[in-house]
Prior knowledge:
Elements: E1 2-6, H1 12-21, E2 25-29, H2 37-41, E3 45-46, H3 50-54, E4 59-62, H4 67-75, E5 89-92, H5 98-109, E6 114-117, E7 120-121, H6 123-129, E8 132-137, H7 140-150, E9 154-161, H8 165-193, H9 198-205, H10 213-224, H11 233-249, H12 255-269, H13 280-287
Parallel strand pairs: 1-2, 1-4, 2-3, 4-5, 5-6, 8-9
Antiparallel strand pairs: 7-8
Helix pairs in contact: 1-6, 4-5, 8-10, 8-11, 8-12, 8-13, 11-12
This protein binds NADP nicotinamide-adenine-dinucleotide phosphate.
Pfam family, one: NAD_binding_2
Active site: 170
Keywords: NAD, Oxidoreductase
Amino acid sequence: MNVAFVGLGTMGSPMVMNLLSAGHSVSVHNRTRAKEQSVVEAGAIATSSPQQAATDADIIITCVSDSPDVEAVILGESGVIHGATSGSLIVDMSTISPGVTQRIAKTLAQKDIQMIDAPVSGGSEGAQKGTLSIMIGGAEADVEKARPVLEAIGSTVTHVGPIGAGQTTKAINQIIAAGTYWGVAEGIALGLKAELDMDKVIQAVGSGASASWCLTNRSDNMINNRYPLGFRVRLHQKDLAIALQTARELNLPLPMAAYVEQMENGLIANGHGDEDLSAIARIVREMGGISDD
Length: 293
Ligand code: NAP
């Protein structure tokens, strides 16, 4: 299968590596062209624009930051829409607004180009190991066309519903992550204040009903007060804003998600927006007067 891939960030680059390992031919493009080098050394073909990447591709994957960025790489000048041929399929793996997704799909359909939304969960570790959970919205036939490609990237590929349903599912995922990260940060703060052996605490609670991806993979960050990427705070704040907007449209209050989103605004204002989401623990630690030592 000829695959095009646009957006070689924390998630995109390892996804391309896994596509190459699975034997797919992959044309790539990244706005900052220097980031193409490592995947090109592994066998990908560099192209000068999303439009050029899409030429001759059966499936075009996009994985960029936010709704306006997906609009730019698909519909903008030199966007995918100008290179993709009739009958080709765009798979957007970015996390963006369900409403914007539906709008883009409508514009593409006028040129007989299909689209599915396929946001992911599982972090940079999941992207590297090819174990992402992929949540999909779109037509059944399009999902089945993309499945062999997506199975090289993720270990759980779930078709949830029509176009946009993948993004709404991702919003649900991010609401749950907000509560989990905040809860883990508060639990760790109590353990640090009580001067417990935190390795033993994490081992004990991680084997019970409080086990979570965050506890397993991010408690070290919170204990050591160091937050290497991972998943940027500003991207999770963007995702919670999408979740809150979607909930508002459905007349649903989400007080916990709103609280964590505001705390993340505070982190961004204080220069921590490009740290890993586990940096949420900074706020809890600071409120408790917990120092680094
Ligand atoms: P990232 O490391 O910040 O990379 C973002 C990518 O998007 C870069 O390649 C960037 O190009 C490109 N981009 C952004 N705006 C663009 C524009 N207007 N035009 C063209 N290219 C543009 O982000 P990431 O962590 O890979 O995340 C990508 C998507 O996956 C996001 O929607 C995020 O919410 C989602 N996601 C991330 C994680 C995670 O753990 N990181 C987990 C699940 C889902 P440049 O290199 O030129 O800046």
